[in-house]
Amino acid sequence: MYSPRAAWQRALLWFAFCFAVSWITGVLPRLLEGPVPSAWAHSAGARVLCLAIIAQWAFAYLCFWPRGTVTHGRPRRVLLGVLFGALWGSAQSLLWLSVLALVQRWPLSWYCHAGIMFALLGAVNGLWHLRFWDVRVSPPHNVLEWNTRKVALGHAPFLVLTLVLVTWTGDIRFFVMMHAAALAASATAMRFPHWRDAPTPQHRAEGLPEAELTGIPRARVFTR
Q1: Which of 2, 109, 143, 149 is the most exposed, fewest CB within 10 Å of its CB?
Q2: Cα Rg for the chain, rounded, in angstroms?
Q3: By the 8 A CB rule, do 92 and 14 touch?
Q4: Global pTM value
Q5: How big is the CA angle at 58 (ends 55 and 64), to the nearest 5 degrees?
Q6: pLDDT, tens digit, 9 for 90 and up, residues 71-82
Q7: How does pLDDT run across 29-50, given as a tens digit for each residue?
Q8: 3-class SS at 221?
Q9: β-strand partners of 142
Q10: How far apart (Å, rounded) are the C-alpha atoms in residues 222 and 219?
């Protein structure tokens, strides 16, 4: 069975681990205490990249990603979804920045650092979601035929753009903010359950094919 209470407990433990690692590596203190370089003040090219990231966030997480996501009739709780998603995105992005801090100890160019991070996250993050997160934490929400599309047109471009920005300009604040916004939208769209909700049958991480989802509501960010 999928237990919302257990899902929240696992998630909060994971968030605590991510925040602890980011504190040990010095990323979280640097974010809180500053000074943090501003991508907007870096250059005209960086400002264009910031706007491109915001546009990709709006397309991927407000428009495209929800189309390939089902809610299975879970109640809409916007504040809960935003709270959970913001914690999720902040913790995850701080962990990634902690890994980046270690990668940046190698005397390589910023675009090499960005490429290494994309390769690492591409190899690990998919397995993490398939084997654990999308089974033990996230509720059933995936549509089998949409998984590759959501990665190719949503997650991957967003990750590439944000990695380029943070390795180029050093603006870790914008990186964390955008990943928190991305997962706040995702958690709201999938209608992440309240910890008091009743358990449901265990689901597969990859989701069900569309043929088996007839009549099951699709996700929406702005509408019921």
Answers
A1: 109
A2: 18
A3: no
A4: 0.93
A5: 120
A6: 888 999 999 999
A7: 999 988 899 999 999 999 999 9
A8: coil
A9: 69
A10: 10
Query: How far from 11 is each of 21, 135, 210, CA to CA, in Å?
Result: 15, 12, 28
Number of H helices, E strands in the chain: 10, 0
- Is the CB of residue 80 less than 8 Å from the CB of residue 202? no
99-103 long-range CB contacts below 8 Å, 24 or more apart? Answer: 100/166, 100/167, 101/25, 101/26, 101/27, 102/25
Tens of pLDDT, residue by residue over 173-205, are 999 999 999 999 999 999 999 999 999 888 887
pLDDT tens readout for residues 66-107: 988 988 889 999 999 999 999 999 999 999 999 999 999 999
The two three-digit tokens of residue 122, written as one number: 């591409």
- The tokens describing 135, both together, are 């089974």
Q: Are 132 and 5 in contact (CB under 8 A)?
A: no
